């Protein structure tokens, strides 16, 4: 897995060969160890060049091997042998040098990179730290602040930035191996000591304590509850304060704690799950590798509200020409201003020109005649959407794909008013659409494989994580969210306060508690949906609204709040109080306490002390329980799909893997037992009744999450 060749007489060329990214599997480590030793012992060889085949230097440790017992040579002594050797070794970096790949390069005496290469230490994103000497060598090379930033964020950098930071010695537009050979020849005979990073001291830094305290505070704020960023700061601190050998001991110790943690397992699961969801398949056998997506060059977007604007920006940034349509001039002007502003600010930040030439704005659907694909983003109202799609059917070319950005309406009903149901799919973006990474691609029963493939591939082009989901109310994300939201308001009825619930969920790892999220997105949105779904209406007693509707427990608290004009941040008051309309800083509101007490008194609900454990279990297990039901109904291909929806669309803490992975990690028997308990206590809450799939999995001895699909009774995938 590492090839050896002698070139230009005195140079040994070692090539890593482990496609697709030359990960440092045990076979590759063995190959490098053997070939380096051969080169160092060959008296004819005066210098060594290390490169990777197929234009990729190295993607780091083989992540698949983390779950297995360690075998083969370890990375640390292998890199040490390169650095300590008496012949100059030059890394020829093409494509990527990530994680252990960059650490390997840092052990070489010189580094030459191709202009398009990317480098970084992304271990933190896998719940780890760069434990092949990365936390000790990088600070000695770049200084502490830069190393701290790169190691705690895992950010990839370009070759140009790497050159500026001193991480590489040369950047070339040409053949990187040739350039590395040239450098190798030029450095033969030069002293190697100054090039051995482990022997250097970290550059002096004033106010060391202050720098590390600030870094620690920042990682704790940024990644609530995540262990790896904290360990990264500690490891870099060791580089600043300890000799190299002791720093390496500290690095190893910290890595040991991380490696055995549930967080690392969750983050590594997320890495593979994110890739697995791209490999969609439909019951008719069509799948990602046998269905050809269309080449989309032009698109139309209808509706320039918050969602539509974000969608336009995402498309344009992917290089697609967009016709943006609004029906009213005022809305169109507002939309144009917003879209232009977002694109200009983004371009300024990146030092490029805003691609405004790719957008045109129009007041009529007629302008969409020639586009390849249309995304509708009008109000969430079935009749309105049907009118739009019937019009599109008449206006657009016969071949134009028609997509709806509905967040939960029946895609098939929408398709049924068109002349082309196979070319209709849902593309459910998440607000703000140019920021959020999730795209649910909703496969209607009549959506063609080509349409699904096109929407999935378009999502990827826009930098989204596209997940194929079935066509049921709320699809995957919003369908599951309903149980989570219902539990949170039931907890208020029973004695909790919004801030108590939010605090418990934020401690769990959510970026924002559910009530803060509600205030942020506007409480009136859900109010409108409940009205249109018949949960609120003329039959409901306004002074004593019923707590049972459509045959299940219902909590009228959010409706009562909306009736008082408390719509969240936009009105300055919601579950919390804000300084003014549009204010962002949430403060607990004593009025809400009184409102909740009056409500409980009025309905005779005894108020009790609710523990943090109950808050988290009822909200999170209810969410996972609905996830099991989603799987059973065939609306998601597997638990990975659900987890990626939650990680990328709903602020689920990535270091907990997703609701389904979390359930597996807590232990399915425990989840079942707690759901049974809460359902016994609340028999009027159907979503607390454990799903049949959960019971079956527990009955089968709780198999690993990768095997759950085998236990899904239905063969009726709705994808
Ligand atoms: C002592 C410990 C020392 C060091 C620790 C480490 O080195 S941890 C690993 C650090 N490296 C990384 O985190 C890199 C992870 N990979 C990526 O970020 C991307 O894969 C990459 C390299 C930028 C390429 O992206 P691209 O979009 O081009 O391809 P894709 O992500 O779909 O990957 C292609 C297939 O390669 C598999 N793969 C990638 N990296 C690794 C890896 N390090 N180990 C194992 N497998 C890896 C990936 O799963 C894909 O597989 P497939 O079966 O095709 O889905």
Automatic annotation (TrEMBL):
Its main location: other. Gene3D superfamilies: 1.10.1040.50, 2-enoyl-CoA Hydratase, Chain A, domain 1, NAD(P)-binding Rossmann-like Domain. Its EC number is 1.1.1.35, 4.2.1.17, 5.3.3.8. InterPro entries: 3-OHacyl-CoA_DH_NAD-bd, 3HC_DH_C, 6-PGluconate_DH-like_C_sf, ClpP/crotonase-like_dom_sf, Enoyl-CoA_hyd/isom_CS, Enoyl-CoA_hydra/iso, NAD(P)-bd_dom_sf. Residues 299-471 form the 3-hydroxyacyl-CoA dehydrogenase NAD binding domain. Pfam families: 3HCDH, 3HCDH_N, ECH_1. The keyword Lyase applies. GO terms for molecular function: (3S)-3-hydroxyacyl-CoA dehydrogenase (NAD+) activity; delta(3)-delta(2)-enoyl-CoA isomerase activity; enoyl-CoA hydratase activity; NAD+ binding. It catalyses: (3Z)-hexenoyl-CoA = (2E)-hexenoyl-CoA; (3S)-hydroxydecanoyl-CoA + NAD(+) = 3-oxodecanoyl-CoA + NADH + H(+); (3S)-hydroxyhexadecanedioyl-CoA + NAD(+) = 3-oxohexadecanedioyl-CoA + NADH + H(+); (3S)-hydroxyhexadecanoyl-CoA = (2E)-hexadecenoyl-CoA + H2O. It is found in: Peroxisome. Residues 474-578, 615-702 form the 3-hydroxyacyl-CoA dehydrogenase C-terminal domain. Keywords: Fatty acid metabolism, Isomerase, Lipid metabolism, Lyase, Multifunctional enzyme, NAD, Oxidoreductase, Peroxisome. Monomer. This is Peroxisomal bifunctional enzyme. It comes from Astyanax mexicanus (Blind cave fish). The lineage of its organism: Eukaryota, Metazoa, Chordata, Craniata, Vertebrata.
């Amino acid at each position: 897995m590492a090839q050896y060749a002698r070139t230009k007489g005195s140079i040994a060329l070692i090539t890593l060969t482990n496609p697709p990214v030359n990960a440092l599997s045990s076979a590759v480590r063995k190959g490098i160890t053997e070939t380096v030793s051969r080169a160092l012992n060959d008296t004819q060889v005066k210098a060594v060049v290390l490169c990777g085949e197929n234009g990729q230097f190295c993607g780091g440790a083989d992540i698949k091997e983390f779950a297995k017992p360690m075998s083969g040579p370890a990375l640390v002594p292998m890199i040490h042998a390169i650095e300590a050797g008496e012949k100059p070794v030059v890394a020829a970096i093409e494509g990527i040098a990530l994680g252990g790949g960059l650490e390997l390069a840092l052990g070489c005496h010189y580094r030459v990179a191709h202009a398009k290469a990317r480098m970084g230490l992304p271990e933190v994103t896998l719940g780890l730290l760069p434990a092949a000497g990365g936390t000790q060598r990088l600070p000695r090379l770049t200084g502490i602040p830069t190393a701290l930033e790169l190691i705690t964020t895992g950010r990839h950098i370009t070759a140009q930035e790497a050159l500026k930071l001193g991480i590489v010695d040369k950047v070339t537009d040409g053949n990187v191996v040739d350039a590395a050979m040239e450098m190798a020849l030029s450095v033969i005979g030069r002293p190697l000591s100054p090039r051995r990073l482990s022997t250097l001291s970290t550059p002096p830094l004033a106010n060391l304590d202050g720098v590390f305290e600030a870094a620690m505070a920042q990682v704790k704020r940024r990644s609530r509850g995540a262990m790896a960023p904290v360990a990264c700061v500690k490891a870099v601190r060791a580089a600043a304060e300890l000799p190299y050998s002791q720093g390496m001991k500290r690095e190893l110790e910290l890595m040991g704690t991380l490696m055995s943690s549930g967080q690392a397992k969750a983050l590594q699961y997320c890495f593979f799950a994110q890739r697995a969801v791209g490999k969609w398949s439909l019951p008719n056998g069509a799948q990602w590798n046998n269905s050809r997506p269309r080449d989309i060059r032009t698109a139309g977007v209808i509706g320039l509200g918050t969602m539509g604007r974000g969608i336009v920006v995402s498309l344009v940034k992917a290089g697609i020409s967009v016709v943006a349509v609004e029906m009213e001039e005022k809305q169109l002007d507002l939309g144009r201003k917003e879209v232009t502003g977002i694109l200009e600010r983004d371009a300024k930040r990146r030092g490029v020109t805003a691609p405004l030439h790719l957008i045109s704005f129009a007041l009529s659907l007629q302008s969409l005649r020639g586009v390849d694909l249309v995304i509708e983003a009008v109000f969430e109202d079935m009749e309105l959407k049907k009118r739009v799609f019937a019009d599109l059917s008449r206006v657009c070319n016969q071949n134009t794909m028609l997509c709806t950005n509905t967040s939960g309406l029946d895609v098939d009903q929408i398709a049924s008013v068109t002349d082309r149901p196979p070319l209709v799919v849902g593309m459910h973006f998440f607000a703000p659409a140019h920021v959020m990474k999730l795209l649910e691609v909703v496969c209607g029963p009549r959506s063609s494989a080509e349409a699904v493939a096109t929407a999935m591939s378009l999502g990827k082009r826009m930098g989204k994580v596209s997940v194929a989901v079935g066509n049921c109310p709320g699809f995957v994300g919003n369908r599951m969210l309903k149980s989570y939201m219902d539990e949170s308001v039931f907890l208020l009825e029973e004695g909790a306060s919004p801030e108590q619930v939010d605090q418990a969920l934020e401690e769990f790892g959510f970026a924002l508690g559910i009530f803060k999220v509600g205030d942020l997105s506007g409480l009136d949105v859900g109010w409108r949906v409940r009205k249109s779904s018949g949960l609120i209406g003329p039959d409901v007693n306004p002074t004593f609204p019923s707590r049972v509707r459509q045959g299940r427990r219902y909590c009228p608290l959010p409706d009562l709040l909306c009736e008082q004009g408390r719509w969240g941040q936009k009105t300055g008051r919601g579950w919390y109080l804000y300084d003014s309309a549009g204010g962002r800083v949430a403060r607990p509101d004593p009025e809400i306490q009184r409102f909740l007490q009056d409500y409980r008194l009025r309905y005779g609900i005894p108020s009790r002390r609710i523990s943090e454990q109950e808050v988290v279990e009822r909200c999170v297990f209810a969410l996972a329980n609905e996830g099991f039901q989603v799987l059973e109904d065939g609306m998601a291909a597997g638990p990975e799909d659900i987890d990626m929806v939650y990680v990328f669309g709903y602020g689920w803490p990535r270091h907990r893997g997703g609701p389904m992975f979390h359930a597996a990690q807590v232990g399915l028997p425990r989840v079942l037992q707690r759901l049974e308990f809460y359902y016994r206590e609340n028999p009027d809450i159907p979503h607390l009744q454990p799903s049949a799939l959960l019971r079956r999995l527990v009955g089968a001895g709780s198999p690993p999450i990768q095997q759950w699909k085998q236990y899904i009774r239905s063969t009726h995938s709705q994808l």
